[in-house]
Amino acid sequence: MKITEARVIVTCPGRNFVTLKIVTDEGIYGLGDATLNGRELSVVSYLQDHVAPCLIGRDPQQIEDIWQYLYRGAYWRRGPVTMTAIAAVDTALWDLKGKIANLPLYQLLGGRSRTGVLVYGHANGADLSSTIDEVGRYREMGYKAIRAQSGIPGLDSTYGVSKDRMFYEPADNDLPTENFWSTSKYLDFVPKLFEKLRDAYGPEPHFLHDVHHRLTPLEAAQLGKMLEPYRMFWLEDTVPAENQEGFRLIRQHTTTPLAVGEVFNTIWDCKTLLQEQLVDYIRTTVVHAGGITHLRRIADLAGLHHIRTGSHGATDLSPVCMGAALHFDTWVPNFGIQEYMRHTEETDEVFPHDYRFEDGFLYCGESPGHGVDIDETLAEKYPYQRAFLPVNRLEDGTMWNW
Ligand code: EZ4
Ligand code: CO
């Protein structure tokens, strides 16, 4: 079997998605997600100009060799653009292998470790009381685990609070929107939010919260301590994680579980975090961390250190990524939780899939490969639209982390 074509499909059914379709001389094909939010076209070029020509004529069954060829062969290692492109190839090849073997992807990985994949949804509101109500709505939808984000008194806008209550799309402008941030206003508010949520809903639901990289390690330690009485499932991305050693300080001061890694591309980005057990959940995902082949290596290292997976699953990760992630989650022994933000109806129509949500869990399907397809005719109706993620400033104008 030979690869005859590697086609990149860009579509914007409400938001941009980049998909790689690897076609073989036997007519079967595999799909991989290549979406890098706000920087989509750089991955398109990487794939079209620098990867596709190297794939033609290769045996698509040599997944490991092709992964190593693209990683080592680039010379310029790692980075989000390279690793997203490699992930797209890798996911498409695992999809193809499943189709060749006539087996769902989780079977190729080693079979089922659990019946369903625990997911968490995103409840958010403009203020305390509407956020509390939204958490109730997610409880009614069946979610066992809910991330709560709220508008902060005194700040006009902040991360995680959406205009549309169901579909949160931060990449909302053809130039970056500017947000403003105050750590003191935030730290004053967040413990109150979770105190009220525990009062309202009792001990049972799992609560999560995303700080979105805005604190220093000492501030993160303070927040973790303040949240201890409310027994969080996790506190996510408290600080920017380029400096992995920075987590030592947070860890020494709080028992609130920590999650990190949605922006990581490789095992090298989390080596210290994992080996020193500085976090509890690793959020690397299929599309941004080199595909199934590399994610498996990260999960194995994590497992040695009592760390479980908690893959990123925001709406900018396409249904193709979600499908692959659910097969991975169904297999991976040290699974923790999977993020799940629902895609819009338009997106789901462009990407027909066989995974389904039921009572707080997602279930991957039994069709061969990862079970997600693309309707290319429909995809063509939604041309690319430039969209940026917001930027963030402190109230005095200083650039900060969004
Ligand atoms: O801001 O996926 O936990 N989820 C997140 C996301 C990210 C977006 C960036 O593309 O932090 O909402
Ligand atoms: Co996040």
Task: Explain this structure.
This protein is an alpha/beta fold and 402 residues long. The protein has two domains: 102 residues, Enolase-like, N-terminal domain (Enolase-like, domain 1, 2-Layer Sandwich); 260 residues, TIM Barrel. The strands form three sheets. Strands 4-5-7-8-9-10-11-12 form an eight-stranded parallel barrel, surrounded by four helices. Helix 6 runs parallel beside helix 7 and helix 7 runs parallel beside helix 8. The model has no long low-confidence stretch (mean pLDDT 97). Cobalt (II) ion binds next to loops.
In what range is the share of β-strand residues? 15-25%
Q: For the residues shown, what is the average pLDDT?
A: 97
Q: What is the total tally of β strands?
A: 16
Q: What Rg do the Cα atoms give?
A: 20 Å
- Individual helix count: 13
Shape: globular
List the quaternary state of the chains.
Answer: single chain
Catalogue the unreliable spans.
none
CATH architectural category of the largest domain: Alpha-Beta Barrel
Cofactors, ions and other ligands in the entry: (2S,3R,4R)-2,3,4,5-tetrahydroxy-N-oxo-pentanamide, cobalt (II) ion
CATH class of the largest domain: Alpha Beta
CATH topology of the largest domain: TIM Barrel
Helix percentage: 25-40%
- N-to-C SSE series? EEEHHHHEHEEHEHEHEHEHEHEHEEHEE
Q: How do the strands of the widest beta sheet line up side by side? A: 4-5-7-8-9-10-11-12
Number of domains: 2
CATH homolog superfamily of the largest domain = Enolase-like C-terminal domain
